[in-house]
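Newbie here. two chains, one complex. Structure please?
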Amino acid sequence: MADRDKYSVLLPTYNERENLPIIIWLLVKYFNESGYDYEIIVIDDGSPDKTLDVAKQLQKIYGSEKIVLRPREKKLGLGTAYIHGIKHATGNFIIIMDADLSHHPKFIPEFIQKQKEGNFDVVSGTRYIGDGGVAGWDFRRKLVSRGANYITQILLRPGASDLTGSFRLYKKEVLQKLVNSCISRGYVFQMEMIIRARQFGYTIGEVPISFVDRVYGESKLGGSEIIQFLKGLLYLFATT
Amino acid sequence: MIPKLFQWLLGAGLFIAVWLAFVLEKVDIQLTEIQRTLVLISPLLAVGIFGLVSAVIVLYRVSTFNDCKEAG
């Protein structure tokens, strides 16, 4: 039964022409080493830097069975990217991750192992327990992150240590059901996925991961992001 | 499943109800001056202690936040 498992990696991309070859190479390497069956679904949102052309070249190199292209016309939300990606996924498991190298594919075999261990519906990468962590964060960033996570834990008692992470493994039908039941965007979307998973009684396993911040200092933690987060937190607090 | 907000409101409501009962001397228990003062300020005390403990916890977690090497 284990041999029939296939893992579809969803890679939403926007202006990742330089990172895409690297992350694909890493994914192929770790999947080949571990022997698990896989495919990589690249969902490019009309990147102006021609990420899609790079993806097409990579498809020629690795084959269209391994690299599947499901581009979209313009930048749409992450939730819809997942929905779009799942539609064409042939795996029974879906892995979601960032395409900008903040998530390292070397953790994927650990995710898979963890899932098998407890037959978990969801396996979530966490920066906050075990030897999970971050690279390139200053004191302020760490303070905001830990503070926000603390408030979230107190208010929502979610049963998972890292709610805003986006490096996860889902059973395909679980991801399907969750995405269709979430209405939030941004950080809160990832939070809502975990909260809904708990509501539906899904089991959640955790794997410590390291997160290498690529875009901090640009738009990741502005005032509006924080306000969006608080609004979303309040929404989940009041409705779940 | 009652949303968390309402769980908190229920808990807070219960706490305030008991507190009010003491403050308005509806309860037939004799308290010393110190005890009475403590009861009176207990809501503030609770918030204060929670704030302090929270700050310590968060700062501890920040200081032990693993710094991973970028290599990979």
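Moderator note: Chain B touches chain A at residues 1, 3-5, 8, 54, 57-58, 61-62, 65-70, 72 (CB under 8 Å). The first helix of chain B runs from residue 4 to 23. Thread marked as resolved.
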